[in-house]
Amino acid sequence: MGLLNKFKDQLSSSSPSYDFPPPPHPIPLGPSAIFRYRKQRGVNLGSWFALERWICPEVFREAAQPGQSDWDVARSGDHAKRILEEHWDTWVTEEDFRWIAERGFNSVRLPIAYYHLCGPLFEVLKGTDFEPFHHIFEGAWGRIKQAVELAGSYGLGVLIDLHGAAGAQNPDAHSGLSRGKVGFWDTHANQASTSLALRFLASQFASVPHVVGLELLNEPQNNSRLQGWYTHTIEGIRSVAPPDFPIYISDAWDTQHYADYVGRRDDFVVLDHHLYRCFTGDDKHKSGIVHAKELRGHFKDIFAGQSDTAKGALVVGEWSASLDPQSFPQDISDGEKDAQRREFVYSQIELFEKHAAGWWFWTYKKGDGWDAGWSARDASRAEIIPPWIGGGRFKGMPPKEVKDAELRDGHHAHTSYWQANGGSPDSTVYAPGFSQGWDDALIFLSAGHGNSTSELGFITQWAARRRVEYESHAGKKLGKAAWEWEHGFKQGVDAASRVCLA
C-alpha cells in the first residue's frame, strides 16, 4: 500500500496532509455510469461487519459486558479475532448475493466501521477506543473488498455506509460502542480518524463504477456542528474523488433542514432518510392498515416536498416491515398479522418508487428465529415483500416513430399549457431536452446489469450534466431557458418508461 506510506504520526497534526491519489475524472455519461444514477432498490447487509446483537446474537456469546457492540466482542479475549473472522466468512456468502439479485434487488448497502479499515490503514485507530485492537480487526478490509467485488459480479451496486465513527456518532451499540453516549465530538482524534477513514474509502472506491456511493455517517445524533462537518468532510473527499462520485449524508432526523442543504449544492450529494413506524408511542398504537393509509395520505405530500427540495436526491436507506406487537389486537391470527405487514410494505414501496431515488430494506437476514418484520428473507417467504422487487420489465427498443409521436404529443401539451398561461414556450429548447431524456432512459432500460431493469433514478443530477453537454455543443448557455430543457428531459424520461416497461 504505497499510497499510505505517509500516514504515521499525522493524525496529531492540526493540518494533516495525506498521500492520496488525485481524484479520477468523472465517469462519462453512458452505460458505465448507470450503477450510480439508476433508481436503487436494495437491501442492507446488516450485522455483517458492524454488529448488532439482536440480529446475530451468536457472535456475542463470550463478549465482555454489556455484550452489545463490536467493542464488547473485541474486549472478550484472545478468541475475539477467531469469532469475528468466522462470522465475516459465513454471515453473507455468494449464495446470498445470488438470492438478492434473483429477486430484483439491484444494490446492497454495506454497513462498516472505521476500525474495519485498520489493516491497510493502521493510523485510523490512533487516539480512539479501538487503538488496542488492531490485531483483531486487521483482517476485515480484505473481506470488505471481496464483498464489493462479489456484489458487482451479480450486477449489484454497493453503497458503502460508515455505520460506526470514532467515539460513536449516536448512543446506539451499532455505532461500535455500547456506552450509551455520543463521543464523536469530544476529541480531535475522533473526528480526524473518521475523516481519514472516509477519504481512504473514497480513494479506494471512487473509480469502481458499481460502488454507488459513500455514506458519511449512519444516523448521527443531530448537533449544531454537524452541517459544518458535512461540508468540510465533503470538501476533503472531493480532493480524492470526482464531483460525480455520490456522497450520501444522513438527515439526522431533521429531514427538511438537510433537504434544503442538499438542494443548495451543485455536486452529487444524496440525502438519506430512515423510515420506521414501530418505535414511538403513537406508532405502537396504530395498525399496519392505519400506517399504510397515512403513508399514502398526508405523509406522502410531506415526503414529496422534501424530495423536491433535495432536487430528487432523497433515498430511504433503511425501512422495514416491522410493526410493534401493540399494533395488533390480542386475538389476531398470524395470517392477519402478515396481511397488515404486507399492506404496510406495499404502501412504503409505492411511496419510494414515486418520490425517492432509491431505498434499502433493513435488513437482509437475522441469525435466530423467524422474523418477517426485519428479515428480508423471512418477509419474502411470507410474501410480505413482493416476489419481484425490480420494477417493470423492459419490453425492448421501440420503433423511431413511437418516439416521434411521443415528442409531438409532449411538445403540443407543453406549448398549449404555457400559451394559455402567459408563457412563451420555445420548441427549440423543449424538444432537444425531451429527445435526450428519451434516449437516456433507454440507455438505462436496455442495460444488462444483473436481473433487474435499471431505471434512471437521479434524474435532476443526470440531466444537469447532459445540459452542460448540450450547451457546449450548441455554443451557448441556456440561461433562463434551462428549466424548459430540463422539463423536456424529464418528460422524455417519463414517456420512455411508460412506453417501454411492462
Automatic annotation (TrEMBL):
A Pfam entry, by short name: Cellulase
GO biological process assignments: glucan catabolic process
Annotated TM spans: none
Origin superkingdom: Eukaryota
UniProt-recorded name of the protein: Uncharacterized protein
Key words of the record: Glycosidase, Hydrolase
Gene3D superfamilies: Glycosidases
Family named by the database record: Belongs to the glycosyl hydrolase 5 (cellulase A) family.
InterPro entries the UniProt entry points to: GH, Glyco_hydro_5, Glycosyl_hydrolase_5
Protein source organism: Kwoniella shandongensis
Annotated GO MF terms: glucan endo-1,6-beta-glucosidase activity
Keyword Membrane: no
Cellular-component GO terms for this entry: cell surface; cytoplasm; extracellular region
